[in-house]
Every structure is written in C-alpha cells, then in structure tokens.
Amino acid sequence: MKKFFQVIMLVLLVSACTxxxxxxxxxxxxxxxxxxxxxFDAAKRTLDSLKADYPKQLDVLKEGLQLxxxxxxSEQERNILFCDSMLVVKQAEADSMKKLFVFEKxxxxxxTGKYIDKxxxxxxxxxxxxxxxxxxxxxxxxxxxxxxxxxxxxxxxxKVIAPDDTYGETAVIPEDGGANFSFQDLxxxxxxxxxxxxxxxxxxxxxxxxxxxxxxxELIGQKKxxxxxxxxxxxxxxxxxxxxxxxxxIMRLNKEKEKAEARIAYLRSKL
Length: 271
What we know:
This protein has 5 helices and 10 strands. The chain is of the alpha+beta class.
C-alpha cells in the first residue's frame, strides 16, 4: 500500500511539473507574440510574471532572458532612431541660430570654443558698464558683469532687481585674475566678473523671465554701483539662452545615442 501511494505521489508530481512547464511556456509564447507586435512594455511585464510565477522552470526562464535581451536591443534601436531624427531638427535650428553669433576659440588656452552675440563683441562695448552673456559649444551658458569707471569698486557679485523688488543674486566670485579680473587704461578702470558653472544662481533665468521689464543691475563689492540693463543686453541674453537650450539638446541626444549604441554592443555579446 505504501508503495502504491508513493507511485501516485510521483505521478502527481510529474503531472504538476508538466502543467507548470506548459503554463510557463504559455507566458513565454505570449511574450514572443507581444514582442513581434512591438509591444515591448507588455512583453517585459509578461516575462516578469513568468519569472515570478515559475522560478523553477529554468529552461523556459533561460529562453525568457534571451527574449528580454532582444526586447531591450529593439528598444535601444528605437531610441537611436529617435535621437537621429531629433538631431536633424536640432542641428538645423543650431545652424540657423549660429548666424547671429561669433565663434571664438583660442587653441592655446581653450578646450571648447564659445559663441558671443554679435552685438556683444568687446569692441562694440567699450567704455561703459554692461551685462555680457555667452555660451560654449556644449550649451553651457555664462554671465558676466562688466564695470567701467574712474575708481575701483572691486565688485564680486551681481544682483538684478525687477520693478516689483524681486531679484536674483549670483554667487560671490573672489578676485583671481581669471573669473574676476580688472585692468586700467588711460586712468579708467574695467572690472569683469564671470559667473559660470551654475555660479549665476539662476540670475540668467531671472533676466530671461523678466526680459520685458526695466531691470537694475547692482554690482556689489567694496563699493556698490548700479545701472539699468539695456534692452540690447537683455535681447542678447535671450538669444544666447535660446541657443544654449538647442546646443544642450544636441549634447544630450548625442550622449543618449552613445549610451544606446554601447548597450547594443553589450547585448550583442550576450546573444
């Protein structure tokens, strides 16, 4: 009798294993079908359910892993196609906008070049205080406060104030001969402080959002000096900001494409 029950249990166990294998294969077949119809998210969810519900069906799970890799490969190819199509659009925008700027790069000192609005070239802005902006090839924008006067104020910070008394304020940039430098010419002093790598503390965006307002620039240092930001300088900043967004988009899309290509190379090695 004991042997009889052992046989029955063995039969039941084999039957259960067979049923589990069929059910697991059903999940796998469903995932294949979804994949063939480009329903990648649904296919991945089905494979996740397969893994959770039938952890002992190793042969089916192995096939499921390979299918998951093929799904990801297809997703990465789709990402590359999207990036390529958007890059065509963004590059056309950038090429059109470049006409408004002058490109500057000193091969001896500069790793990346920068674009300056033609209206803000130094030779066009001598002997007065103003706000200058520019953007490098990677889309990183910077802001600079330029003081021109008969005496030093040794400014290290810029504050921009709107008519409603709201304001933006940059970080403090100590005198270092680079980001904060000054020089004297014919008895007149020029001080230039550059705010980059986030040191503008969103003052760039503040000016952009208040481009139609009368904005006061306050240079803060040992002394204070104030002036109204000209409409021309605000327009230059707006153009530069818009250009920086397009250049940043191009950089981001290229990086996303590189990541997708690297992932496909990895998946190819596994398949």
